[in-house]
Design a protein that fits this description.
ten-stranded mixed beta sheet, four-stranded mixed beta sheet, globular
């Protein structure tokens, strides 16, 4: 198995680019959606959350490839992305005149994706409701993105996408595969989060067929115990509810080695372990399997941690790992960065990162030492 080799920053325009859907998130705050009378507006999407972490937290040069209807909601999403330092010049805009390839009408036949997400409280779990069945990104397919320009002429060090986006439509699956192959051709690192969601695609066989075509082109694969079953079809041992981290890891490790044998292109496989004690209190761990050395690196385990919003924790784990690799860190440090960034993002509201690299490094040190926190005055 070849080692991961990344292009130099000096010869590229971007450190990372993501392909995926970005939705407007409506957050009802302290009450469930059904009883809300006001709400906050965020944005998010499993693929874009990774890129935003790389940009805002770690200061890397990023861009998103997505599609939006050119209306107030679409421009709101764009402005939020720009505030995080993401280049939005590669967004494909759908006009509402009904004219041209990328167009819709004024009555919302195509509309920007929206989700209502309540973070939950105590024994009441978080709830997400999607409105994404008729979004513009579903209509963008192979040949619509100039990958040779992005990966070749401009230069990109890393490309990421995921299993939520690929299941939105046949076109999104085909475009993701096209992007992966082009990224591989131009020497960019490639990550893919299996991230299976039954609300997006209840047919697991379809998900598995799509993912089995993409994974042979991936360097860093992200997925938990259930994802490898749901999204790739691996029949794994059942982990009893309430099992310890060590019990879970023993089962997960067997599967990691089988996956790496079946897909020898993979350099790293990682995931976070989130044990939900309640909607706002969790145990949090993470592992990163370094295939070349057959080593499973484990982050410091955090127990009984209070959180504000669980959404985006896994995406932020992936961002921390990728940021470390892009900055020349080894796998042992990468898993610590991923775990720290993932927990910090869950301690703030919204899907995306509101912390900086210095915060991540301090949290790594705190977790390893096992200390508390001090007020900054």
């Amino acid at each position: 198995m070849a080692e991961l080799t990344l292009r130099l920053a000096a010869e590229t325009r971007y450190d990372a680019i993501s392909l995926g859907e970005v939705m407007l998130r409506i957050d009802p705050g302290a009450v469930p959606t059904a009883r809300a009378r006001s709400a906050r507006i965020w944005h998010g999407g499993g693929e874009t959350n990774v890129t935003e972490g790389l940009s805002y937290c770690f200061g890397l040069r990023t861009a998103v490839v997505t599609a939006l209807v050119d209306d107030g909601a679409g421009r709101n999403i764009e402005n939020q992305l720009r505030e995080a330092g993401i280049d939005t010049s590669h967004i494909i805009w759908f006009n509402n005149s009904g004219k041209g390839k990328f167009s819709t009408d004024g009555k919302g036949t195509l509309h920007n994706g929206v989700n209502f997400t309540w973070a939950g409280k105590g024994v009441l779990p978080s709830v997400t409701e999607y409105y994404r069945a008729h979004t513009p990104i579903r209509e963008v397919g192979p040949g619509d993105v100039d990958w040779d320009h992005l990966f070749g002429t401009m230069g990109t060090r890393w490309f990421s996408t995921g299993g939520i986006y690929t299941l939105l439509s046949p076109k999104t699956a085909d475009l993701a595969l096209e992007g992966m192959k082009k990224a591989e051709e131009h020497g960019a690192g490639r990550s893919f989060d299996l991230n299976y969601r039954s609300k997006v695609e209840p047919n697991k066989d379809r998900a598995r067929e799509i993912n089995r075509g993409i994974v042979p082109h991936v360097d860093f694969l992200v997925g938990n115990h259930d994802d490898f079953d749901d999204a790739l079809g691996y029949e794994t041992e059942t982990v009893p509810k309430g099992a310890s981290f060590d019990e879970w890891l023993a089962v997960y490790a067997k599967m990691l080695r089988q996956v790496s044998q079946d897909y020898p292109n993979i350099k790293y496989i990682g995931t976070q372990l989130r044990g939900a004690l309640s909607a706002d209190r969790i145990d949090w761990g993470a592992v990163l399997y370094e295939v070349g050395t057959d080593t499973i690196h484990q982050a410091a385990l955090r127990e009984n941690i209070e959180i504000a919003d669980r959404t985006g924790g896994g995406d932020s784990f992936a961002a921390g790992v990728i940021a470390a690799l892009l900055q020349g860190q080894g796998a042992a440090d990468a898993v610590q960065w991923g775990a720290a960034h993932g927990i910090l993002v869950q301690e703030t509201i919204g899907d995306t990162s509101m912390v900086k690299q210095g915060d991540v490094e301090k949290e790594v040190a705190r977790a390893i030492k096992g200390g508390g926190v001090s007020a900054l005055r």
